[in-house]
Amino acid sequence: MTQFNETELTEAVVKSFDNTPDPRAKFLLQELVKSLHDYVSKTGLTFEEWEYAIDFLTRTGQKCTDTRQEFILLSDVLGVSMLVDAVNHRDRDGATQTTVLGPFYVGEHKVTAHGTDISPNNLTGERMFVQSRVTDLHGKPLANVPVDVWHADDDGFYDSQKANYDEVGASARARFITDSDGRFFFRTILPCSYPIPTDGPVGEMIVQTKRHPMRPAHVHFLVNAKGYEPLITHVFMEGDKYLDSDVVFGVKDDLVAKVEPRNEPEMPDGGKANGQWHLMSYEFHLKPG
Amino acid sequence: MTQFNETELTEAVVKSFDNTPDPRAKFLLQELVKSLHDYVSKTGLTFEEWEYAIDFLTRTGQKCTDTRQEFILLSDVLGVSMLVDAVNHRDRDGATQTTVLGPFYVGEHKVTAHGTDISPNNLTGERMFVQSRVTDLHGKPLANVPVDVWHADDDGFYDSQKANYDEVGASARARFITDSDGRFFFRTILPCSYPIPTDGPVGEMIVQTKRHPMRPAHVHFLVNAKGYEPLITHVFMEGDKYLDSDVVFGVKDDLVAKVEPRNEPEMPDGGKANGQWHLMSYEFHLKPG
Ligand SMILES: [Cu+2]
Ligand SMILES: [Fe+3]
Ligand SMILES: [Fe+3]
């Protein structure tokens, strides 16, 4: 049998993977064939559209470098990354919600003392004091837990996106170790909402489909306590205008932090405040694992 | 609403494309989102599998050059290319079946006289005489029709794959113009079955899934008559052992040509034969368009 109608063609391709040694790989490939074929059949995809897709995928692959991953960005804006996150965290049991790591984590950060200003060179951003705590699911504080923190500056860029990152080093990026009460705190600036990179094929798609490229302002956290599931997440600033339309669909209600404007002359640790500042409060609850 | 369960997440992503100006693009993107999300949900795709997919797609894009298209190859071995061909040629009305153009067409060929040996430098291949005819759906001969022909040599390579192609020029590649009876004929060698390139991510997948990389021996034809649908196809050699398992699913029963071993001292045009030769016969039937 070599003459295929559309259904027989799909069956023949599925069958061609029958001898795949790894059963999970076999399942994933055979389901992929069915999905792709179903898509082509039901849309009646034309040659021109197929050619467009081939070219788009090729350009997406060729846009990738050591420091840029355009295929992850594509997965992000199609909501696939957050869906993979969701299907792998179906049962949270009250633990803090997860999100994707994102492209701006650069590996373990440098341990920094509580209260440190991690954006000392950023003179235009509004000042923010972050107070946080790490507990288990019953509220028991977890001590000595390393917490990596990173966020964009008030131009919407991460330190690692800048040309002079190698000389200047980390900014708005640090590691804190929780105290005996599970607490840590630090100073920084209010992060900004920022656009995903729009100079590649993915950005082109966002523009052509009249979506906006913005992510609401957030701070990334990676909380890694012994005996608990590592928590990768980010926490959003209450009131941001993009909370309901994050271009990568990363916002979850539980991940929006209270951020209050304050004008007390002292910050919570007794340090002096210079004019208006913001107080961000958030607690992390870890799941055993 | 920002807190998504899996279904709500899919709906939110679909909705994000609601303002796409082009209605067909909107439809294709929204169906793509549904297909991708359905795949992730039903397979319960893990992070490691998602990362593998991102890396595979990236490497596929980066393997592409001016002369190599690894994403088309991926589409081919997943049967997607032939399915796109099928959904765009649902109604053949007795016209010759179509296939994909393939990566070795290099643009309009040089017009060559009937009877010419188009593989004169290939001394090891078995000799073949090809006799063919172009008609409409009622058998009426079509005269003055340009027919581009190309095939692999007896090592399984096309002329254009060779490093010295620029100096040596076309081999087993030519254009013939049909005579008043719609006929054309030429000499060449019997083409070989050949493997798709296996030094990239697609070849890696073929090896890991225990598929073979072979295409059954064939000759490509592009028949372009005024007033008729251009016909892109290839014609396979009767008896090839890969006819039932073409790695790119391109074989159709109607495209298998009669190829007979002969030992008459003269070929059909009266030219002298040197020992055994093969006679390949095939007719093309074009659809108005
Ligand atoms: Cu058959
Ligand atoms: Fe971020
Ligand atoms: Fe070929």
Features:
homodimer; 289 residues; alpha+beta; Protocatechuate 3,4-Dioxygenase, subunit A; 2 domains; 8-stranded mixed sheet; two-stranded antiparallel sheet; 27% helix; binds copper (II) ion; binds fe (iii) ion
Write the layout of secondary structure elements.
2 copies of one chain form a homodimer.
Chain A: H1 6-16, H2 23-43, H3 47-63, H4 70-77, H5 80-87, E1 127-136, E2 146-151, H6 165-168, E3 173-177, E4 183-189, E5 194-195, H7 201-208, E6 214-215, E7 218-223, E8 231-237, E9 256-262, E10 277-286
Parallel strand pairs in A: 1-10, 8-9
Antiparallel strand pairs in A: 1-4, 2-3, 2-7, 5-6, 7-8, 9-10
Helix pairs in contact in A: 1-2
Residues 102, 104, 218, 220 of chain B line the site of one fe (iii) ion (FE).
Description:
- Two copies of one chain form a homodimer.
- Chain A has 289 residues and is an alpha+beta fold.
- Chain A has two domains: 6-82, no CATH class; 93-286, Protocatechuate 3,4-Dioxygenase, subunit A (Sandwich).
- Chain A contains seven helices and ten strands.
- In chain A, the strands form two sheets. The first copy, chain A, has an eight-stranded mixed β-sheet with strand order 3-2-7-8-9-10-1-4, with no helix packed on it. Chain A has a two-stranded antiparallel ribbon with strand order 5-6.
- In chain A, a hairpin with a 7-residue loop joins strand 7 and strand 8.
- In chain A, helix 1 (6-16) packs antiparallel against helix 2.
- The longest helix of chain A has 21 residues, at 23-43.
- Chain A is elongated.
- The N and C termini of chain A lie far apart (52 Å).
- The mean pLDDT of chain A is 94.
- At the A-B interface, helix 1, helix 2, helix 3, helix 4 and helix 5 of A face helix 1, helix 2, helix 3, helix 4 and helix 5 of B.
- The complex binds copper (II) ion and fe (iii) ion (FE) (2 copies).
- One fe (iii) ion is lined by residues 102, 104, 218, 220 of chain A.
- The site of one fe (iii) ion has 4 residues of chain B, from strand 7.
